[in-house]
Design a protein that fits this description.
It is a single chain. The protein is of the alpha+beta class and about 325 residues long. It has one domain. Helix content is about 20%, strand content about 30%. The chain is built from seven helices and 15 strands. The chain has helices at about 5-10, 50-60, 110-115, 140-145, 150-160, 200-205, 230-245; strands spanning about 25-30, 65-70, 80-85, 95-100, 130-135, 165-170, 185, 190-195, 220, 250-260, 265-275, 280-290, 295-300, 305-310, 310-320. Strand 13 (about 295-300) and strand 14 form a beta hairpin. The chain is globular, with a radius of gyration of 20 Å. This is Sucrase ferredoxin. It comes from Chroococcidiopsis cubana SAG 39.79. InterPro entries: Aim32/Apd1-like (IPR009737), Aim32/Apd1-like_bac (IPR010350), Thioredoxin-like_sf (IPR036249).
Length: about 325
Amino acid sequence: MNKFFCAEASRQAEENPIGWAAPCQLYILIECPPPWTGDEFASQSISANLKVLVEEIYRAEPAAMVLLIYSHILTKKNSTKLLIFRQKSGLCDGYSKQETEVNCINDIALVLQNYLANPIQTEDPPPLTRDILICTHGSHDKCCAKYGIPFYRQAIATVTNLGLENVRIWQSSHFGGHRFAPTALDFPSGRCYGRLDAKSFTSILTYNGDIQDLKSVYRGWGILSGSDYPIPAQLVEQELMLRYSWDWFKYKVASRIVEQNEDASFNCVELIFATPDGAIARYRADVVEDRSKALYLIGDCNGTEVEKLPKFYVKNLTQLECDRD
């Protein structure tokens, strides 16, 4: 029996989770009770037409992620939820949401096809519902079950104890980062976390506590893209989050790579953000690989090959003057 757990190896090696959030412009969440197979869309409850549609989505939208979700508390008889989160344009604070229900999962494909043919973006009216996904996909990687299932239960208890009626907790199929299990995706912001416990999760839920504690659990923000992991813009965003504390979670953000060398060991990143009162700020920083700090780990529980996991750090973080009209 394989007793290796990739999340435990990563934790013991003190691997930093920042920069390992998968960039994604479109999330499609389909309510479907487990068990799920390793490839969730090969599960018995998934119709052939839905599986084909998911394959078409990935071909048409490379920056998409289709996930199965479930909650034993939220489920209703003869009802299947479909949640679609699409990244907002320009400076943004996350994703716009569309939610609908159908009678059964076999009806999802047609509804989803109609949305993809006529996508619309809407601003959700306050108060916003937060949908938080906890990966429990143990058939994909056993760490997702070992750490994800107990934390899913703990997360529900934490939300209940805090009396947060606008927060829904879902177990989810895999969205990456099993070596940081238990992992979470927080919508509509689209921020990603790992190695969560009750204390850090409470801070995330309430936007309160010592912001420095997020350094050990924050994986990054899916709206900030890059071609290589760890994603440089996500490292810079974390530095600014630590500087501006919980107010940062109210800001709208965009980023770009100003300069990058051939092997991406050096990256000059610019990040611009807007506060709720309309103030604009712009920062630039270098994100540089420290080759002496690279880790060499087996990246998943069923893996056999050691992977190089590069270590990057942020330096020369500087606020720039903003262009004036």
